[in-house]
UniProtKB/TrEMBL annotation:
Belongs to the DNA glycosylase MPG family. NCBIfam families: 3mg (TIGR00567), PRK00802.1-3 (NF002003). Gene3D superfamilies: Methylpurine-DNA glycosylase (MPG). Residues 164-186 are annotated as: Disordered. One of its GO terms (biological process) is base-excision repair. The keyword Hydrolase applies. One of its GO terms (molecular function) is DNA binding. This is Putative 3-methyladenine DNA glycosylase. Its EC number is 3.2.2.-. InterPro entries: Formyl_transferase-like_C_sf, MPG, MPG_sf.
Length: 216
């Protein structure tokens, strides 16, 4: 008999570690989003680590700004950014406080609250696609910039909370280059910091960075 996922909230100390340790350890964990239509629970299947000042792919590589301020801590909080003028992406901040690093939540499986997630993702061809990619994940959960700075380790009724879930065994975790990252940050030999559950159908396809063409 398979044991049900552990619903114990993850403590803040879980996130107060180097980001490349936290990222693969998030696979199999459960993110719960409280909504007026009921909770939506997502099992994480794909993530990417971003290591602040040591990482040219990180939003915090060149220092603190109004946009990335949440990345500087405390750990366990949510960093949400808006990209391409249309999509939101969600990250979990890792410690120690004052040193910006975070984990981008790239994909997951909706394990509770399918109906409210489906309403937000009408273009999904099936339930495996509801949160298959970082923008789709944020859309399915109804996460936007208003959640920037939310505490995923908070007590009581909170809009977002990370639960222990069922950690993925190390032999089922794969790693490789991050998706769509340019230059040195996209070098898989230097930064093999995309982690995913082997063979999981909700994992998004890898795409190398393609420079955007400017309109003439």
């Amino acid at each position: 008999m398979i044991a049900p996922p552990d619903r114990t909230p993850l403590p803040r100390t879980f996130f107060d570690r180097p980001v490349v340790q936290v990222a693969p350890d998030l696979l199999g964990r459960i993110l719960v989003r409280t909504t007026p239509d009921g909770p939506i629970a997502l099992r994480l299947t794909e993530v990417e680590a971003y290591d602040g000042p040591n990482d040219p792919g990180s939003h915090a590589y060149r220092g603190r700004t109004a946009r990335n301020a949440v990345m500087f801590g405390p750990p366990g909080h949510v960093y949400v950014y808006f990209t391409y003028g249309m999509w939101h992406c969600m990250n979990l901040v890792c410690g120690p406080e004052g040193r910006a690093s975070g984990v981008l939540l790239r994909a997951g499986e909706i394990v509770e609250g399918l109906e409210p997630a489906r309403k937000r993702r009408l273009s999904a061809r099936d339930d495996k696609e509801l949160a298959k990619g970082p923008a789709r994940l944020a859309t399915a959960l109804g996460v936007d910039r208003s959640f920037d700075g939310a505490d995923a380790c908070g007590a009581g009724e909170t809009p977002l909370r990370m639960l222990t879930g069922t950690p993925v065994p190390s032999d089922q975790v794969r790693s490789g280059p991050r998706t769509g990252v340019a230059g040195e940050g996209g070098n898989g030999d230097l930064h093999p910091w995309r982690f995913w559950v082997a063979g999981d159908p909700t994992v998004s396809p890898y795409r190398a960075h393609v420079p955007r063409r400017r309109r003439s």
